């Protein structure tokens, strides 16, 4: 799966979790700026784990601040699998 495909899936999951988000969601979009609180981030990460079939370790969560961060993490994790 390419990074573009991963980003597209993440954006789809964000829109699913937060249907009220208006405007573009780009790789540089920060989750906080999208209005995502800690509970919504947990829900998003659970959806990501289901969608991509992998677990996001708790120690990685704090560094996942933007869509790009999550894309890079998933691309690296999927390559390692």
UniProtKB/TrEMBL annotation:
Keywords: Fatty acid biosynthesis, Fatty acid metabolism, Lipid biosynthesis, Lipid metabolism, Phosphopantetheine, Phosphoprotein
PROSITE patterns the UniProt entry points to: CARRIER (PS50075)
Domain Carrier residue range list: 1-78
Lipid biosynthesis is among the record's keywords: yes
Entries under Gene3D superfamilies matching the protein: ACP-like
Top-rank lineage group of the source organism: Bacteria
Name the record gives this protein: Acyl carrier protein
Gene source species: Phytohabitans kaempferiae
Upper lineage: Bacteria, Bacillati, Actinomycetota, Actinomycetes, Micromonosporales
């Amino acid at each position: 799966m390419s990074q573009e495909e991963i980003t597209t899936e993440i954006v789809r999951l964000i829109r699913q979790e937060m249907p009220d988000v208006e405007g573009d969601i780009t790789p540089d979009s920060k989750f906080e700026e999208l209005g995502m609180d800690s509970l919504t981030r947990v829900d998003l990460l659970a959806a990501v784990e289901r969608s991509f079939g992998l677990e996001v370790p708790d120690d990685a969560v704090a560094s996942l601040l933007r869509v790009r961060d999550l894309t890079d993490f998933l691309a690296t994790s999927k390559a390692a699998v």
